[in-house]
Design goal:
The chain has helices at 2-17, 23-27, 71-75; strands at residues 29-33, 38-40, 46-47, 52-60, 62-64, 68-70, 79-89, 95-97, 106-109, 111-114, 118-125, 130-138, 143-148, 158-163, 171-177, 186-191. It is mainly beta. The strands form two sheets. Strands 1, 2, 3, 4, 7, 8, 9, 10, 11, 12, 13, 14, 15 and 16 form a 14-stranded mixed beta sheet that branches. Strands 5-6 form a two-stranded antiparallel sheet. β7 (79-89) and β8 (95-97) form a beta hairpin.
């Protein structure tokens, strides 16, 4: 009887020691670095109250990270999600998140939802086989502002685009360098 207990204890110890604690393997996550998929629309760093700050993305289903990737075929995703936050300076060292009603966002392409950050979704266009996003954030009051893509990203100067893949498909995380950000990962601008 003691032998059975020892055998069961050894078998249990073996099973526990071989558990996969790597969530990325379990959830089938893959990471690639492909720069400049998302951009801040060209504008001087000074805006006027009532103007909109536009964020754009328009990237092909065929991307290269050294090898040609068909991200639509690989992931089955018709959408890629990312986030960014806009803050207003309220004192020399303090910033507060700027929020607006979703109805105030100028959604030209894709989808966006605003809360403590803007949740943006690039939507697949079957006609030209690209993922598209273009949303304008209204600038409603004067002040000093900054925009950051680092809210849900591991890197201050990159935005993380995550495929919204069907349950059984690969989840692709694209870390994409964003030009126009300072060393701390912010796009600073003023509204007059």
């Amino acid at each position: 009887m003691k032998k059975i207990h020892y055998i069961l204890l050894i078998a249990f110890a073996f099973l526990v020691s071989n558990c996969d604690s790597n969530d990325d393997g379990f959830y089938n996550n893959v990471y690639v670095d492909i720069p400049n998929l998302v951009s801040i629309e060209s504008h001087s760093s000074t805006y006027t109250v009532g103007e909109k700050l536009y964020i754009d993305a328009d990237f092909s289903r065929y991307l290269s990270d050294g090898a040609l990737l068909d991200i639509y075929k690989t992931t089955g995703a018709t959408q890629f999600a990312f986030s960014y936050v806009i803050e207003k300076q309220i004192s020399a060292t303090e910033w507060e998140v700027v929020t607006v009603n979703d109805s105030q966002l100028d959604i030209v392409k894709g989808y966006a939802q605003n809360g403590s950050y803007v949740y943006g979704i690039c939507e697949y266009n079957t006609t030209d086989e690209t993922y598209e996003y273009r949303v304008g954030f209204p600038l409603l009051s004067p002040g000093t502002y900054r925009l950051s893509f680092g809210y849900n990203s591991d890197y201050p100067d990159k935005v993380e685009l995550r495929s919204l893949s069907p349950a059984t498909r690969l989840i692709l995380n694209i870390n994409s360098l964003v030009t126009g950000l300072n060393d701390d990962g912010y796009y600073n601008f003023t509204v007059n």
